[in-house]
């Protein structure tokens, strides 16, 4: 096992390519940090699986990243954060940042009428993780959760704008609008890519919360608080690992990240 120090990488995992929305945010806010991203592309999607299966997959991802000597772990996947975060925290000795609590806390700050919508995968919504996290901060908030299963394949296909994206968004979000929410949490890695369409359907008065952005701020805060920021100014290393062939990951991933993916390897977990 590598020795952990300030120069050690931040580990990020997701069920696939979606967590790159969080990684992109991390590159923006913490450009000097070394990172290792693991996308479990062979077993994506997690959002339709049982909590037991998601937790088993998460443990395998964490074991791999821990073996690389990471100094902090970001669980970019909303589904894994929803169902496995506590178990993951108990299994590693480094700080673990999930996306649920940071997103929930920003939603509570944002809402005026205390009606908050949450959209995510079936597993995330079924777990009520966002609802519980929001209610733990403000017991008087009303939370309305809806799953939007077609959003993930839509984004994977690159159909993030246009007629089809608009039609699907209108169909899913009608129910959310009817609840009169003034804040909507984008509780899935892929949804920030549909922000434009979602904003258009929801209307300009509705505040959209990107959990990945909030989790990245939390990451920056934790590095600082624990005194484990990287202090070296040389170009950071940015490694990628996937569990299926890298070609599709590179193609979709470079679109997500809007930059080249240079160091990538396929691994067996
Ligand atoms: N990464 C997942 C999430 O944020 C979406 C894709 C999947 O279902 O695995 O919930």
Secondary structure topology:
Blueprint: E1 10-14, H1 20-29, E2 35-39, H2 51-67, E3 72-75, H3 78-91, E4 96-97, H4 100-110, E5 115-120, H5 122-127, H6 129-137, E6 142-147, H7 151-156, H8 163-178, E7 183-187, H9 195-202, E8 207-210, H10 211-225, E9 238-242, H11 246-257, E10 263-266
Parallel strand pairs: 1-2, 1-3, 2-9, 3-4, 5-6, 5-7, 7-8, 9-10
Helix pairs in contact: 1-10, 2-3, 4-6, 4-10, 8-9
The structure holds D-glutamic acid.
Question: What does this protein structure show overall?
Answer:
The chain has 269 residues and is of the alpha/beta class. It has two domains: 10-98 and 213-266, 3-Layer(aba) Sandwich (Rossmann fold); 100-211, 3-Layer(aba) Sandwich (Rossmann fold), CATH 3.40.50.1860. Helices cover 46% and strands 17% of the residues. The protein contains eleven helices and ten strands. It has helices at 20-29, 51-67, 78-91, 100-110, 122-127, 129-137, 151-156, 163-178, 195-202, 211-225, 246-257; strands spanning 10-14, 35-39, 72-75, 96-97, 115-120, 142-147, 183-187, 207-210, 238-242, 263-266. Strands 4-3-1-2-9-10 form a six-stranded parallel beta sheet, sandwiched between helices. The protein has a four-stranded parallel beta sheet with strand order 6-5-7-8, with helices on both faces. Strand 1 (10-14), helix 1 (20-29) and strand 2 form a beta-alpha-beta unit. Helix 2 crosses helix 3 (78-91), helix 4 (100-110) crosses helix 10 (211-225) and helix 8 (163-178) packs across helix 9. The longest helix is centred in the first third of the chain and has 17 residues, at 51-67. It is globular. The two termini are 17 Å apart. The structure holds D-glutamic acid.
């Amino acid at each position: 096992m590598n020795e952990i120090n300030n120069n050690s990488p931040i580990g990020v995992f997701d069920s696939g390519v979606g967590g790159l929305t969080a990684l992109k945010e991390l590159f923006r806010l913490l450009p000097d940090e070394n990172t290792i991203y693991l996308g479990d592309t062979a077993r994506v999607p997690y959002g339709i699986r049982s909590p037991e299966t998601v937790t088993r997959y998460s443990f395998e991802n964490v074991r791999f990243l821990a073996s690389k000597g990471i100094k902090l772990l970001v669980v970019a996947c909303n589904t894994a954060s929803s169902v496995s975060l506590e178990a993951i925290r108990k299994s590693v000795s480094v700080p673990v940042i999930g996306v649920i609590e940071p997103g929930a806390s920003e939603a509570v700050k944002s809402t005026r009428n205390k009606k908050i919508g949450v959209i995510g995968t079936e597993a995330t919504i079924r777990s009520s993780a966002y609802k519980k996290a929001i209610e733990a901060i403000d017991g008087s908030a009303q939370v309305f959760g809806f799953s939007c299963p077609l959003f993930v394949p839509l984004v994977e296909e690159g159909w993030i704008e246009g007629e089809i994206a608009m039609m699907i968004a209108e169909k899913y979000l009608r129910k959310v609008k009817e609840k009169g929410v003034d804040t909507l949490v984008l509780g899935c890695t892929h949804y920030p890519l549909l922000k434009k369409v979602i904003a258009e359907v929801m209307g300009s008065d509705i505040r959209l919360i990107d959990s990945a952005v909030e989790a990245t701020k939390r990451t920056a805060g934790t590095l600082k608080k624990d005194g484990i920021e990287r202090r070296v100014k040389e170009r950071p290393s940015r490694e990628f690992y996937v569990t299926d062939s890298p070609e599709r990951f590179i193609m979709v991933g470079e679109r997500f990240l809007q930059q080249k993916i240079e160091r990538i390897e396929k691994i067996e977990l």
